[in-house]
Amino acid sequence: MSRRIHYHVYVIELSKDVLYEGKFKKCNPGYISGKSCVYVGMTGLDPDVRFDKHKAGIQSNRYVKQYGLRLLPDLYEGFNPMSYEEACDKEIELGIDLRSAGFGVWQA
């Protein structure tokens, strides 16, 4: 029996105010001023539904609940959907790529 291919990676733009959070800033020593701050995650839900749950405080990340602005589909749509294992790997890879490009990145 094959596993369902229904997992998604997603990227949420965070307000620059997240840079005042010491823990966020410490995890992003290579942040380039002016670049976006983002949260990278993965889910078995539609990314729009997952974003709404974050903002409503349902299994949410604190930074997304407090600073989340909007989804950035241009950064992830081409990858979705995928298997659970692929999504786990892609979430890590995407976070590394964005951080290497100077973005401020948070991952759960």
Question: What this model shows, in words?
Answer:
It is a single chain. It contains four helices and four strands; from the N terminus they run βαβααβαβ. The chain has 108 residues and is an alpha+beta fold. Strands 3-1-2-4 form a four-stranded mixed sheet, with helices on both faces. The termini are far apart. The mean pLDDT is 95.
Which features does this protein show?
108 residues, alpha+beta, four-stranded mixed sheet, 4 strands, 35% helix
Summarize the structure.
With 108 residues, this protein is an alpha+beta fold. The protein contains 4 helices and 4 strands.
- Strand percentage, roughly? 15-25%
**How far do the termini sit from each other?**
30 Å
Count of alpha/pi helices = 4
| SSE sequence, one letter per element | EHEHHEHE
Strand ordering within the main sheet: 3-1-2-4
Main beta-sheet annotation: 4 strands, mixed
Please count the beta strands (DSSP E, at least 2 residues each).
4
Low-confidence runs (pLDDT<50, min 5 residues)?
none
Structural class: alpha+beta
What is the residue-mean pLDDT, rounded to a whole number?
A: 95
The best one-word shape is globular
Question: How would you classify the quaternary structure?
Answer: single chain
- Using the CA coordinates, give the radius of gyration: 14 Å
Percent of residues in helices comes to: 25-40%
